[in-house]
């Protein structure tokens, strides 16, 4: 198959969420060539066969060329698994392809930043290890626009225990939540680490159910701090209690904002949910990232640089795409 300059490589594209991201991209852009990369060629080929205008390739993260050879060219590369070698990012830089990753913790970002700063003109690097690939950060920024001044933003996510994804996603969950002994957050204008007392919090879902939550530090907090200048930012993650009789998967994003509007104190709570859980939301977020990185939306691809999602994607565009893929937004 001859690959065009709009061709996209999705590493982990035959996995639980990666395959849905490929399907979401195909829904938005029926003709864009897609390569699904993974360790199991037959599995990747099976997913590719359902997409059309797609092929599959074995990826070897221990090799700088990923085992793809010199002839392959891509406009954008999406990385769905944790690449401890960073060869996927090096490959993107070598090819001048835009790159988006989704599995890096805040405490792990140093090597990626260092790799970019040593080759700042190689390609566009989107650091999208936000909750559900921008599906929390961008709506939060959208809702924050209704405030004249933002004092605090608390993000809460409820994940169904049945909705952990495949083995790679489960490994990411264990690493990001269990490996770091403490979690960073913004308190009274200062970045700090959680104490045992800070960790005790209850999340109240839209149906009134209350769940114990664990502090978490996705990249969302970094962008929210830079854009809103809020003095208090935190993110809490709770595992929902599934109703075995319900076909719906428990998956909610709760955005609480406290600040001022028209000279008066103002508060707002917004709830986003999807009846099929986190996977289609993450898939939609990555599809939106790829359409911008590859210039599929008709605009020029971004120049080489290091970006967070809000620097490339308009919050209103993400909101529209999320609704298109079934997200329920209580606004």
What is the strand tally?
16
Q: What is the approximate shape?
A: globular
CATH topology of the largest domain: Rossmann fold
Q: What separation lies between the terminal Cα atoms? A: 45 Å
CATH superfamily of the largest domain: NAD(P)-binding Rossmann-like Domain
Mean pLDDT: 90
How would you explain this protein's 3D organization?
The chain is of the alpha/beta class. It has two domains: 8-132 and 280-314, 3-Layer(aba) Sandwich (Rossmann fold), CATH 3.40.50; 137-277, 2-Layer Sandwich (Dihydrodipicolinate Reductase, domain 2), CATH 3.30.360.10. The chain contains nine helices and 16 strands. The protein has helices at 16-28, 41-51, 87-95, 110-118, 137-144, 167-179, 220-228, 278-293, 315-324; strands spanning 8-11, 34-38, 54-58, 76-79, 98-101, 124-127, 149-159, 184-187, 190-193, 201-204, 210-216, 232-239, 251-261, 264-273, 305-307, 328-330. The longest helix is centred in the C-terminal third of the chain and has 16 residues, at 278-293. It is globular, with a radius of gyration of 19 Å.
């Amino acid at each position: 198959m001859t690959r065009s300059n709009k061709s996209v490589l999705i590493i982990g594209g035959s996995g639980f969420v990666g395959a849905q991201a490929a399907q979401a991209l195909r829904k938005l852009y029926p003709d864009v060539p897609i390569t699904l990369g993974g360790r199991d060629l037959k599995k990747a080929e099976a997913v590719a066969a359902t997409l059309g205008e797609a092929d599959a390739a074995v990826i070897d993260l221990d090799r700088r060329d990923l085992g793809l050879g010199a002839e392959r060219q891509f406009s954008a590369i999406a990385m769905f698994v944790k690449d401890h070698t960073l060869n996927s990012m090096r490959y993107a830089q070598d090819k001048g392809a835009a790159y988006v990753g989704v599995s890096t913790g805040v405490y792990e970002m140093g090597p990626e930043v260092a790799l970019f700063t040593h080759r700042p003109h190689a390609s566009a690097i989107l650091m999208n290890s936000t909750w559900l690939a921008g599906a929390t950060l961008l709506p939060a920024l959208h809702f924050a626009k209704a405030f004249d001044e933002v004092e605090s933003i608390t993000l809460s996510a409820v994940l169904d225990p049945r909705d952990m994804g495949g083995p790679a996603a489960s490994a990411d969950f264990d690493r990001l939540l269990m490996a770091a002994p403490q979690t960073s957050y913004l308190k009274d204008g200062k970045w700090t680490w959680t104490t045992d007392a800070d960790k005790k919090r209850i999340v109240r879902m839209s149906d009134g159910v209350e769940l114990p939550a664990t502090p978490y530090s996705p990249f969302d907090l970094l962008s929210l701090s830079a854009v809103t200048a809020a003095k208090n930012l935190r993110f809490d993650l709770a595992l929902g209690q599934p109703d075995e009789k319900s076909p719906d998967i428990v998956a909610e994003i709760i955005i609480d904002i406290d600040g001022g509007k028209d000279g008066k104190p103002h508060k707002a709570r917004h709830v986003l949910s999807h009846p099929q859980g986190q996977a289609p939301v993450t898939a939609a977020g990555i599809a939106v990232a790829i359409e911008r990185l590859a210039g599929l939306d008709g605009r020029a691809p971004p120049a080489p640089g290091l970006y967070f999602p809000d620097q490339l994607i308009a919050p209103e565009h993400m909101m529209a795409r999320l609704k298109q893929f079934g997200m329920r937004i209580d606004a």
